[in-house]
Amino acid sequence: MSMNFLPEDAVTVLAAVALDLVLGDPRRLPHPVVAIGKMISSLEGGLRRVFGNLRAAGVVLLLVTVGVSYGAAALLLYGAALISPAAAFVAGVYLAWVSLAARSLHVESAKVAQALKRGDLPGARLALSYIVGRETAGLDEPEIVRGAVETVAENTGDGVIAPLFYLMLGGPPLAIAYKAVNTLDSMVGYKNERYLEFGWASARFDDLANYIPARLTGLLMVLAAPFCALSGSGAWRIMRRDGRNHSSPNSGYPEAAAAGALGVRLGGANRYFGRVVEKPTIGDPAVPLTLAAYSGVVRLMYGSELLLVLLCLVAMAFR
């Protein structure tokens, strides 16, 4: 796969996006992200034993995981190309497809909304607990909606726009390498006693990998908002004002753009492991947090993704 965005690359991207939008994550097929997760789990114990310095062990874990992931994807494409161009195309589309998560994000978050529509608060809390890290017991409907909106907004960046960005930049191998970085952060990037040192490199590299995509996501949300019956000016104003109101150097930008587009306030108090953590607020409470806000952020996610695809196709046409 060429490092340049050529016509055959455009077809691969379009096919992958279409498959993700229609079918979602192919969980019944061999999945590179599952294999990456198993590799991380198998390496962790050995690296901890071999290296006395946990940061050094974490650096090795990062390098090996990302290197093997990129190399395996590139090798698969090379081997498929030896068989036939059609095999190479199918392999490239599959790797690109599994790197995207828009449909899965929608499906999993929609379970929260569906429970709320039924008036099933316990069911909504349970569904939310599967997609957020905070405690959900006792949350009322606005707080449940806030959790769902924040999750969709944040994951639009690292689950949709970022892999698409790297797919367009360097083809399927770079998209899979990004998924390896993202998986490392989700597995070892915690700031607790076990992973504070061992996961340091993975967490920092994930921040670096998402630096441009997070800000790109915010801008795409600003541009897509008017086409989604939302406020583009509000998205721009709140992103500029509150984009840094987050513990993550990146997550605040898509969350702030979404909050401004929706006219809602995100952030605030969350409970983790029995302890209440007060987070900076993002946005202004112009309208209440209802299911309308959830529907709006889902539209914003799809609108941002499709806008990025369109912009890249237009740029390619001019080239």
From TrEMBL:
UniProt membrane topology term: Multi-pass membrane protein
Transmembrane segments: 75-97, 216-236, 300-318
Gene Ontology molecular-function annotations: ABC-type vitamin B12 transporter activity; threonine-phosphate decarboxylase activity
Keywords associated with the record: Cell membrane, Cobalamin biosynthesis, Membrane, Transmembrane, Transmembrane helix
BP terms from Gene Ontology: cobalamin biosynthetic process
Pathways per UniProt: Cofactor biosynthesis; adenosylcobalamin biosynthesis
Family of this protein: Belongs to the CobD/CbiB family.
Protein purpose: Converts cobyric acid to cobinamide by the addition of aminopropanol on the F carboxylic group.
Name assigned to this protein: Cobalamin biosynthesis protein CobD
Lineage: Bacteria, Pseudomonadati, Thermodesulfobacteriota, Desulfuromonadia, Geobacterales
Organism of this sequence: Citrifermentans bemidjiense (strain ATCC BAA-1014 / DSM 16622 / JCM 12645 / Bem) (Geobacter bemidjiensis)
Cellular compartments per GO CC: plasma membrane
Entry annotated with the keyword Membrane: yes
InterPro entries: Cobalamin_biosynth_CobD/CbiB
Keyword Membrane part of the UniProt annotation: yes
Broad class of where this protein is predominantly found: membrane
Location relative to the cell: Cell membrane
